[in-house]
Structure formats: C-alpha cells, structure tokens
Amino acid sequence: MAHKTDRPFFITFEGIDGCGKTTQLEKAYDYLTASGLTVYKLREPGSTGVAEKIREILLGKNTISDITELLLYEAARADLVDTEIKPLLENGHILLCDRFYDSTTAYQGYGRKLDIAMVKNLHRVAVGDLTPDLTFLFDLDLKTALTRRGQNPDRLESQPEAFFERVRQGFLAIARVESDRVKVIDASRSIEAIFEDVKEQLTQLLGLK
Ligand code: TMP
C-alpha cells in the first residue's frame, strides 16, 4: 500500500537542454513509487493551466525581451508554487520537479547575463522561502547534449552555443556555492550508471535503506 515519508520532500532536476534530466526524473518516480511511496511529478514552466499557457509563450516563436522572459518564468513559477507545490508539501508529499529556480539563475542570470542578485530577489518574490531539499544537476558537455536533443528546437534551444556554455557554467557555479543541496551528476554516462548515483542520493535523503 502507498505510504508517506515522515516529512515532505521537494526534489528538483536541473541541467542544460539534452542533459537527460527528464529521463532520470521518470526513473526516480518509478523507483520511489515501486518502493510504496506516493510521489508527484511536476515540470517548469508548466504543470498548471496558467503556467502551461506561459510555457507556450516562452517556448513558441515569439520575440521576447530578456526581462519579460525572466518575469514570465517567475510568473509561471509563482502560480505553480501557490496552486500545487505548497499545498502538496503541506500535506507531507514527495515532489519531483523538472527544473525550478536554479534554471532561471542559470539561463536568465548567467545565460542572458542579467544581474544575478536581481534574479535571485525575484525567486523570493515568486516562491517565498521555499528551497528544494535536494537538487540534481546533470552536468554534460554541450556537444553531447546537442546530439541528445529533439529535431525541432524551441525558442530557448535555438540560442547559440555560447549561451548554453554560460548556462552550464552557471549551473556549476550554483552547485559550488550550494554543495549541500545541489549534487552534480556526470551525465555523460549510460542512463543506468547515472541512475545509480540518483538512487543513492534518494535512498540517503528519504532514509529508504
Ligand atoms: P524543458 O525543455 O526542460 O522543459 O525547459 C524548457 C526550456 O525553458 C528550457 O530550454 C530551459 C528554459 N528555462 C529557462 O530558461 N528558465 C527557467 O527558469 C526554466 C524553468 C526553464
């Protein structure tokens, strides 16, 4: 029978496009549910009616200024936090989220070269004091990531390589500062080898052993 852990957990999956984070999130979901836990999957931007509409604007073929882009990601996040994440955590659930505010720091802060302190202030406007319990950063070189992406690049995926190099370095900078929360996983290996590392972190955090 499905059961809860003794406290809620908020776990996020991060990295550049093509790093394999969504595959790992699905595997983590299957593993935890097979362990008898009730787990919720969310994605950013998206997972609510309003946030999925914002996602369409952000990833569609629109001309969007850097500040507008930043505010739209934060707006989608505020809606998801208010309507889904906070209520689920208050009810003691485990949440797996495909991207969260580290993506905004990396893509809009480092990638678009917006002021990092300003970007981080906006995270607090959008989410209050909510911080993930654990963040996986799937680190991968750009060349390999490009080979793993789909055929039709969206608005973000169409950015030049230098942009993604800054985003990758941005993620690594976050992980250096917040090494307790952000675990860097070498994503150049096989899906199964990567998942062994993910599983180890999850079992430790959730006390599954
Ligand atoms: P996805 O492809 O992982 O679903 O993410 C959608 C795209 O949006 C991806 O290219 C990364 C980008 N993104 C940002 O630029 N800033 C953000 O805050 C988030 C959540 C995603």
Characterization of this structure:
α1 packs across α8 (191-206), α2 (49-59) packs antiparallel against α3 (66-90) and α3 (66-90) packs parallel to α5 (116-127). It contains eight helices and five strands, in the order βαβααβααβααβα. It starts with 8 loop residues before the first strand and ends with a helix. The protein is of the alpha/beta class and 209 residues long. It has one domain (9-206): Rossmann fold, CATH 3.40.50.300. Thymidine-5'-phosphate (TMP) is lined by residues 17, 43-45, 73, 99, 103-104, 107-108, 156-157.
Q: Quick recap of the structure?
A:
With 209 residues, the protein is an alpha/beta fold.
Q: Helix- and strand-based class?
A: alpha/beta
Outline: globular
Low-confidence stretches: none
Counted by DSSP, the helix tally is: 8
* Largest sheet geometry: 5 strands, parallel
Q: Report, as a whole number of angstroms, the end-to-end distance.
A: 18 Å
CATH architecture: 3-Layer(aba) Sandwich
Total number of domains: 1
What is the C-alpha radius of gyration, as a whole number of Å?
16 Å
Number of strands: 5
> Which sequence of strands runs across the widest sheet?
2-3-1-4-5
The kinds of small molecule bound in this structure are: thymidine-5'-phosphate
> Could you name the CATH homologous superfamily?
P-loop containing nucleotide triphosphate hydrolases
Helicity level, as a percent range?
Answer: 40-55%
Helix and strand string, N-terminal first?
A: EHEHHEHHEHHEH
